[in-house]
Amino acid sequence: MSYKAILVGTGGQGRAWCARFLPPNVEDGLVQVVAAVDVNADALKNAQEHLGVPPDKCYTDPQRAFDENPADFSIIVTPPAYHEAVVDLSLAHDMHILSEKPIADTLEAAVRIAEKVKRAGKKMGVTMSHRFDQDKTTLRQELRAVRNGALDYLICRFTCNMRNFGDWGAAFRHTMKDALMIEGSVHHLDILADLAGAKCDTIYAQTWNPKWGAYGGDSQGLVNLHFTNGVRAFYEGAKTNAIGLNGWAQEYVRAECELATLIMDRRRVERHPYEGGRIYKREGEGTEIPLLEQSKWMNTWLVEQFVQWLDGGPAMETNIEDNLQSVALVFAAIESSHTGQPVKVQELLAKTRQAESHKLGAAH
Question: What pTM does this model have?
Answer without folding.
Answer: 0.93
